[in-house]
Amino acid sequence: MPPLSELLMFALALAAAGVVAGVLAGLFGIGGGAILVPVFYQVFGVLGIDDAVRMHLSVGTSLAIIVPTSVRSFLSHYRRGVVDMDLLRNWILAVPLGAVLASLIAAHVSSETLRLIFAVIALAVACRMIFNRANWRIGADLPKNPVKWLVGVAIGVLSGLMGIGGGVLNNTFMTLHNRPIHQAVATSAGVGVLISIPGLFGYVWAGWGEPGLPPLSTGFINWIAVALIIPITLLVAPVGVGLAHALDRRQLEAGFGIFMVLIALRFFYSLYG
Length: 273
Prior knowledge:
This protein is an all-alpha fold. It is built from eleven helices and two strands. It has helices at about 5-30, 35-45, 50-80, 85-90, 95-105, 110-130, 145-160, 165-175, 180-205, 225-245, 250-270, and strands at about 215-220, 220. It has a two-stranded antiparallel sheet with strand order 1-2. The two termini are about 25 Å apart. The mean pLDDT is about 85.
């Protein structure tokens, strides 16, 4: 067991990550998992968690935290009347199906594979954030079904494997199809709800009975981390919502993209360094 000073330091690191994750949830319509997963991975490593379950535990715990964060963010955006409810209704089965498929995949892949998936998608997201232009379009409106439905499944799968709320993926999809960025952000909060709830139950099932899990874990969900971070993210998520409707976010997007590059490089180094 690490000394008390180290435990306190990492508890503070988790709390700081919770603040950042909560603001990001409102600002970008994301669940904050892009911040939480790498932080959890580092903290669980210091605490001596078995490498075989360390990444799975990071992803599952992140999804559990995203549940209340995304619900709070969605309700805040919904009250402003900018959520595309038609899209969410179309995806009410597609996105959860993808999240459940992700947990099934996670139950059968190694920690190294999950890290590689996270790093590759994080790098792709970073490129989109850094180089994105407001006038980039691939369509005048969202595609029709079955393409739109399959995109929902894909967003659910990729987000479930990364432990994220799907915001950056859905933001990209909607803005490339001529939807306003504020509508995309608001709708992405609802997508986070559709991903995180089935994802939570899926990762509980996927990790049930696994050896090497820390105390107070149910499957790949560690409830100590959940209890520590959820109150913080719930408190600060509305701050991000206010910023999303008040700021020009281009510089913030670029900064977030650079952060994602660093995270991707960290995971690539852990695999091949």
